[in-house]
Design brief:
With 337 residues, the chain is α+β, with helices and mostly antiparallel strands. It is built from twelve helices and 13 strands. This is BioF2-like acetyltransferase domain-containing protein.
């Protein structure tokens, strides 16, 4: 029999004999799928968790949610590369998620899940489960994810396939930039990163405390790759990557605008690519979300990320939304011809 439970207490989840191990680094080989990630979102980013859990014996499905103004949404933010349900067993997943969807219908009229991947079938699995439970699912592409599959290439082979302008830049500028790649957290280097970020082209950091706590934890676990570049003794570029499960994740990168002429960001990226490919021997690299043009120089594959707006059609509060959605669809059909 499938049992449904909800909890806002992540310590309770951690102490659970089934869920604690399921959501640990031993089982989940990406930071976004782990309890520690959601704990940090709660502590540093103000996202109150609502863990929706369906279980049947040793099988479980966990949907990490938080309550927004219009109802539950994904427990994720701009630091999260992707969001998906966490499952013990793929065979039991459809029934568990459908049972969870039926139960959620008793308390909520709308749920919005953003950042769902579908290369692993997550978006389709969730959409089908909720539709089987009577929800209307509206799927749309909401973001892009640039990735690299190395397929056995070493760094030099990979580099030979990069665009000519990038290879020329690296050849001309590498001798002007000193780079280091650390595999542990260093407070001084992190302070330099924060100073560089403040002078970069990037917007103000959303939660510096979250990012530092994550870097410290990943450093303690041996998964951090922290890069720093100097020109004339001054730190001018910094990047934060993590490595696990055969994948390198590129989380943050920044360079001082004043040093743009010597391309310290590109030179530092090359050093980190070399390290994770030839030293860590990763099979893939994930550049996170966002369709920034510079990512295309380094990556070779683009994967969509989906939003899934789940609607209870019978709920009166959803009727204005559904009417607007229908009108937009009719307008698109009319425009097409």
């Amino acid at each position: 029999m499938i049992a449904i439970a909800y909890t806002r207490d992540l310590k309770e989840v951690q102490s659970d004999a089934l869920l604690g191990p399921l959501l640990s680094a031993d089982r989940q080989r990406a930071p976004f799928d782990r309890l520690a990630w959601w704990q940090a979102l709660e502590q540093h980013c103000g996202l109150a968790p609502l863990m929706a859990i369906a279980r049947d014996g040793d099988d479980a499905a966990v949907l990490p949610l938080t309550l927004g103004k219009d109802g539950p949404r994904a427990l994720a933010n701009w630091y999260t590369f992707r969001f998906r349900p966490i499952l013990t067993d793929g065979h039991a997943a459809p029934a568990l998620l459908a049972a969870l969807a039926r139960d959620l219908a008793g308390a909520h009229a709308r749920i919005v899940l953003s950042g769902l991947p579908d290369e692993d079938g997550s978006a389709t699995l969730v959409e089908r489960a909720f539709r089987a439970a009577g929800w209307l699912g509206i799927r749309a592409e909401c973001d892009t994810n640039h990735v690299l599959a190395l397929q056995g290439r070493d760094y030099q082979t990979y580099l030979s396939g990069r665009p000519g302008p990038l290879r020329t830049t690296l050849k001309r500028k590498s001798g002007k930039v000193d780079v280091r790649v650390l595999t542990h957290f260093d407070p001084a280097i992190w302070a330099a990163y924060e100073d560089i970020y403040a002078e970069s082209w990037k917007p103000e950091e959303g939660s510096p405390a979250f990012l530092r706590a994550f870097a410290e934890a990943e450093g303690a676990a041996g998964r951090l790759r922290l890069g720093i570049a100097h020109v004339g003794g001054e730190p001018v570029a910094a990047q934060m990557w993590t490595v696990e499960g055969g994948t390198a994740f590129i989380h943050k990168l920044a360079h001082r605008e004043s040093a743009k002429g010597v391309s310290p960001g590109s030179v530092l990226s090359a050093a980190l690519f070399r390290h994770v490919i030839d030293v860590d021997l990763v099979s893939g690299i994930d550049f996170g979300t966002g369709d920034n043009p510079y990512k295309r120089d380094w990556m070779e594959l683009v994967r969509p990320r989906y939003s899934l707006t789940l609607i209870r059609p019978a709920a009166p509060r959803n009727w204005p939304f559904l009417a607007k959605f229908a009108l937009r669809r009719l307008a698109r059909w009319a425009k097409r011809g």
